[in-house]
Structures are given as C-alpha cells and as structure tokens.
Amino acid sequence: MKTGLIGAMREEVLLLKKDIQNLKTKQFGSREFYSGTINDNELVMCLSGWGKVAAASTATTLINHYQVDQLVFIGLAGSVQAHLNIGDIVVANQLIQHDVDLSRLEGFSSVESPFWKTFEFDVFPHSGKKAIQAVDKFILNLRNGEYPNIHSGYNPNVYVGAIGTGDQFIASNEGKVRINERFPQVLCTEMEGAAIAQVGADYQVPCTVIRVISDKADEQAHSSFAKFLFEDISHISVELAKLILS
Fold first, then answer.
1. Residue 107 and residue 33: Cα distance in Å, rounded?
2. Fewer CB under 10 Å: which end of the chain, C or N?
3. Are 161 and 241 in contact (CB under 8 A)?
4. In the predicted model, what is the mean pLDDT of the chain?
5. Marked catalytic residue, from 11, 120, 215, 239
6. Contact 239, 154 (CB under 8 A)
7. Which residues lie across from 209 on neighbouring strands?
C-alpha cells in the first residue's frame, strides 16, 4: 500500500524526511514531493500549506501522479469543545466543511448540484480503525517512556469524532459558538482535512486525519498555537506517521 502523507506546515511532517529510505524528490508547481519507503512501506510526503485549496491541490497530485492508495493528514487543530484540552489527540471519523453554506438554495428544486450536495465526509471504516490503532500504540509507547524527544509530562486523552474544516483560523468564542450551532458534533477545527476528504471521496481513495489540539480556538489561540507548534508537534507527528506506516 502506498501512503500519501500531508502536513500543512513544515513543523508537522518534514522531520520524517530523515527516516525515508531511497528518498526521491520531485517538484510539481510550488510543492516538493518526497517519495521512498519507511519500514518497507511506500510513502509520498508533501507540505501542502494552509487552507482548503492548498490541501486539495496536494491531494489531487498525490492521487493522479503517485497513485497513492490512502491519504493521511497529521497536524494541529483548535478545540471547539470544552472537554478537549491542549495536547489531546482527535482521530476523525467524519470531516465537515463548516464554512460551506448552501441553505439559501434549499427549496429551489431546479437547482441541482452536479457532485456533492453536502460537505460532510465519513472516514472509511478500515482507515479509521488503522488510525485509532496507531494512536493507541503511540499512547502506550509514550507511557512506556519510548519517546525521549517528547516532553515527559505529555499525557493526552484520545477522542474519535468529527473534525471541522474552514478557511479561517478560529480565535474567538464567537467563532466557536458559530461552528457549534451548525455542527454540534464537531470536536475541533482546522483548515485542510475535509478538503482532502472531498478529493478522496471523488476518487474513492481512503482518507485519514489525526489532529493534536494546539489551542482552544479562543482569544488566546494565537499564543497557544505558537507555543505548542515549536515544542513537541514535530516529534509527535513523526511517531504517529511511523505507526500508521508500520
């Protein structure tokens, strides 16, 4: 199985580059794609950049040029539920584009969407199960002290649920309330996952998204996000990716 691994930011995925065997680099547009193997499993890795368009473009190249069998996204997210704390891990079972609103078209029977009528995408059961197994193994290894590069006090809770995607960095309680009112099932918010899920659905390629909570999507989100970004996320992402590829 060939995996397409995507991260929005350099800190989220590129540390894994040093572990790729038979590394080859190729550029498409503004992005570099790194291909090779880890644990004898084929991998193509790319830094997408922020936002839905960037994520969709990256995913499309991975599918059309590299013929990947699955898409995996690992990165940070902001919590929109009070019980999720910074450092907790969310495995998606559904990915929702929370900033798409077609409600004004409801009732117009002559208006027919040629493709997707809703922008809520369920994760393929096999992909979701694999992601949960990888995160569970990560937690076990973490508690056994197997990751010296990750802060010894890191002890995350793991949640499985819906992740919301929009082209906005949510940094206010008002923004969180707006998402909760429309999609009360959403646990956290980010800017790429559901776009990748839509591309995956177009091509029937499984998509997995794992997010680590970096902030509470409130007025302190900018400082919390930056602090978490430069502490542990690179090492957390790398270990999760290795377990998905094992």
1. 44
2. N
3. no
4. 88
5. 215
6. no
7. 73
Nearest-angstrom CA–CA distance, 203 and 191: 21
Predicted structure pTM score: 0.89
Question: Which has the closest alpha carbon to 39: 25, 18, 20, 23?
Answer: 20
List of residues 6+ apart from 164 with CB closer than 8 A: 80, 96, 97, 98, 179, 183, 186, 188, 189, 190, 194
End-to-end CA distance of the chain: 11
Q: Give the residue carrying structure tokens 């498409």.
A: 28
Q: What is the pLDDT of residue 226?
A: 55
167 DSSP assignment:
S
d(CA 164, CA 138): 24
The CATH class that applies to domain 2-102+119-245 reads alpha beta
Active site residue 215: yes
CA nearest to 95, candidates 182, 208, 242, 15: 208
The dihedral built from the CA positions of residue 128, 65, 8 and 16, taken in this order, carries a sign that is positive
**Which among 11, 12, 120, 239 is annotated as catalytic?**
12
Token code pair at residue 51: 């936002």
DSSP H stretches of helix in the chain: 10-13, 52-64, 125-143, 173-182, 193-203, 221-229, 233-245
Answer whether 150's CB lies under 8 Å from 236's CB.
yes
How far apart are the C-alpha atoms of 56 and 54, rounded to whole Å?
Answer: 6
Tokens of 226: 């930056």
